[in-house]
Amino acid sequence: MSETGARADLGVLGMGTMGANLALNFADNGGFTVALGNRTVEKSYGVRDSNPDLAPRLVPTDSIEHMIQTLKSPRVVVIMVNAGQPVDDQIALVLPHLDKGDILIDAGNADFNDTVRREAAVRPTGVHFVGMGVSGGEEGARHGPSIMVGGDRAVWERLKPLLEPISAKYEGVPCVDWLGEGGAGHFVKTLHNGIEYADMQMIAEVYGILRDGVGLKAGAIGDIFADWNTRGLSSYLVEITGVTLRETDPDTGQPMVDVIVDEAGQKGTGRWSVIEAQKLGIGATTLEAAVSARGVSSRRRERAEAARVFGDIALPGAQFHADRDGLGELESALECAKLIAYAQGYATLAEASREFGWNLPLGTIARIWRAGCIIRSAFLDDIAQAYEAGEVVNLLQAPSFRDRIEAGQANLRRVVAKAALAGLPVPALSAALSYFDDYRRARGTTNLTQAQRDLFGAHTFHRLDREGTFHHRWPQV
Ligand SMILES: NC(=O)C1=CN([C@@H]2O[C@H](COP(=O)(O)OP(=O)(O)OC[C@H]3O[C@@H](n4cnc5c(N)ncnc54)[C@H](OP(=O)(O)O)[C@@H]3O)[C@@H](O)[C@H]2O)C=CC1
Ligand SMILES: O=C(CO)[C@H](O)[C@H](O)COP(=O)(O)O
């Protein structure tokens, strides 16, 4: 119970970065009384004690039983702990104390297959299990995240009054919505992160070109990104690129990025995106390139050895020139590649929607990503409009996108070619270009693949000139 003796409106289980800030957001922007729970119990008291203004609406609890007793019925419990086993453990601890009609939400990142399994396991109890994606990092969780809700639609109607006040707002419209049954919310959040990976990787590749190809210092590159953030590339990720590159390490006086080890962490969402895209037969090649690049980055010692073995073997004299025009070329190339990455992410969402019968509202997804989340950008408004204007086969073919791709593709081509000649790695930018070239080719080359498969495995093929399935008696090899 709160200091005033009132029962709590909901409980948040997990007082890490996201859970603590989400709880404060519920208390602050929602005006809700929130029960706080955590494996390490002291953290719940710490959250209350370090927020005296909100303390009357924050109720630290010492155990699951204590949290349950504190909550109004029907109860709402939000789990916000690390993905995987910790979520299963929390569900196992809380579920026996909940009653029919209570709502149990997993608000962390989750593999949607786990969400589907958990929902099926919880359903017989009459408790409603909801998989819900939350994006926006620490700041977003505290002041307004983008929220992607799955589970039963009727449960969403009950959750709306809790979630709308705490969500980000874009021109006054809450960035939260119900996206589909079952694991739809977590699937969409996963793809949000997959796109985030691709976007970040492309930015890092352009940073690499400017650092290693052009020879600019971090601060100067930060200024370039800050400038780009005023135009078509305007987005949170480009903005923070400028901020991080201009930051100085107080200990050494060097640019902060220059003292950070070049090994990227990853918690799973990028990998899950790529696995699901592959299962659905969608070529999310820029997302794949981004996940792989993080993997390669983590093999730092091996890379150092390879650098010693191979040295600088770029073509002699090949340099990446980027004068004023060259910078414009890079800006345009990054914008074009980013459009392709988003198109791949959306193609994965569209296919999942068909496969799982979700009827995902693709325009709404773009709308709730316009504020609060990590990939928020002006450009998402264009995606929302493209979906609202009519049926979209693939974003690359939507009229507004087609024009932008046509305008940028030559620059992307030049940047990828120059980077390749200069020995600068651009896995995501080149993946974007190759995908585009593959996608726009009416007559591809897998006719040869089919012939080979038929030769060695009698896998059969279709013919251009007649209907049916055929096997050819190829010469013995
Ligand atoms: N950080 C971010 O920017 C974002 C994170 N997320 C997702 O939100 C979730 C939480 O992330 P975040 O707050 O950053 O993580 P933190 O590492 O800051 O906090 C982890 C929380 O999980 C609890 N926990 C970990 N393992 C267990 C366990 N085995 N049993 C019980 N509790 C456990 C911790 O408890 P204790 O204090 O006792 O260790 C702590 O409360 C994750 O799914 C993450 O992917 C989603 C969007 C953005
Ligand atoms: O969900 C998020 C942002 O949207 C989290 O910040 C997540 O941790 C990012 O993924 P990773 O840690 O794998 O880079």
UniProtKB/TrEMBL annotation:
It is an enzyme of class 1 (oxidoreductase). Transmembrane segments: none annotated. Gene3D superfamilies: 6-Phosphogluconate Dehydrogenase, domain 3, N-(1-d-carboxylethyl)-l-norvaline Dehydrogenase, domain 2, NAD(P)-binding Rossmann-like Domain. One of its GO terms (biological process) is pentose-phosphate shunt. Residues 185-475 form the 6-phosphogluconate dehydrogenase C-terminal domain. Pathway: Carbohydrate degradation; pentose phosphate pathway; D-ribulose 5-phosphate from D-glucose 6-phosphate (oxidative stage): step 3/3. It catalyses: 6-phospho-D-gluconate + NADP(+) = D-ribulose 5-phosphate + CO2 + NADPH. The keyword Nucleus does not apply. Its EC number is 1.1.1.44. The keyword NAD does not apply. Keywords: Gluconate utilization, NADP, Oxidoreductase, Pentose shunt. NADP(+) binds at residues 14-19, 38-40, 81-83, 109. Substrate binds at residues 109, 135-137, 192-193, 197, 267, 294, 453, 459. GO terms for molecular function: NADP binding; phosphogluconate dehydrogenase (decarboxylating) activity. The active site is at residues 189, 196. Homodimer. Belongs to the 6-phosphogluconate dehydrogenase family. Catalyzes the oxidative decarboxylation of 6-phosphogluconate to ribulose 5-phosphate and CO(2), with concomitant reduction of NADP to NADPH. This is 6-phosphogluconate dehydrogenase, decarboxylating.
